[in-house]
Structure formats: structure tokens, C-alpha cells
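CO-FOLDING WORKSHEET

Operator: S.A.
Ligand of interest: zinc ion
Run index: 151
Mode: holo prediction, single chain
Checklist:
[x] sequence pasted
[x] SMILES validated
[ ] output reviewed
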Amino acid sequence: MIQHSCQETEPLLSGYLDGELTAGDRQRVELILDDCMVCGQAFDEMRKMRQRVGAIDYEKMTSQEKDQISRTAQESVGASVGQVLFLVGVFIVYGVGAFWMVRGLIGDSEAPLFLRVGAPIMILGMGVLFFTVLFQRIKAAKTDKYRNVRI
Ligand SMILES: [Zn+2]
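OUTPUT RECEIVED:
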């Protein structure tokens, strides 16, 4: 039987849970817990309470995770903007290249007629497609931004 006062032991129990005790105090608390039902129950209560506090910590963690998710969403908006920039770049290079190619074809009287007519139409069609995709990308990026605000 360990000589102790249950009331005086309580702060030690809390310290034990926090891992703040010296090795000697830890050993004493362990002996008391083995020995005293009252302190054992107090210890269990305290541990349950810590677990509840731990649950609150977990909620904090999930709000951090939410931050993480919204950060990821911002990154995906960044990726969308990257795609738009890429498409704009491709369109400029492609547009200038197509312009030179069409001008060369139309100016070249030796090129077959189907090529002189077909190529500009094909290039125009591809240009329209590029614009369509470009605007869809811009729209998608804006929608992502609004979704982000909601988070
Ligand atoms: Zn006790």
C-alpha cells in the first residue's frame, strides 16, 4: 500500500498524462495507480477528457486540411491559367505560321487548287477550334475561382 493523498496525487496524474513528470514521479504515479482505485478512476476520467480535447485538436487539424484542399484548388486554377497561356502561345505561333503558309500557298500559282482552297479552310477551322477550347479553358478557370471562394 502506497502512502499518498488522492487529492495531492491528481496534479501528478495530469502531469503523467502530459509526460511532464520526472522518472521518480512517474514510477510513484504508476505504483499509486496500481494500488488505489480512487486515483485509478480519476486517471481514467482525466484520460477520457484528454481524448475529447484530442478530438477538438483533430477538428483543428481538419480545418488545416481544408486549407490544404483550398490551396490545392488554387494550384489547379494556376494549372488552368497555365493551360490558357499555353493555348494562347500555341495560337499565336500557329496563327502566324498559318498566315505565312496560307499566303505562300495562295501566292504560289503552281500549287494545286485543292491545296490553295483546302488548306486555308482547314487552317481557319483549326483556328476556330483553338478559340473554342481557349474560351472553354478561361470559363473553367473562372468557375474554379468561384468554387474556391466558397471553400
Ligand atoms: Zn489515491
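REVIEW:
The pocket of zinc ion is lined by residues 4, 6, 9, 32, 36, 38-39 (CB under 6 Å).
Residues 37-107 form the longest helix (71 residues).
[x] output reviewed
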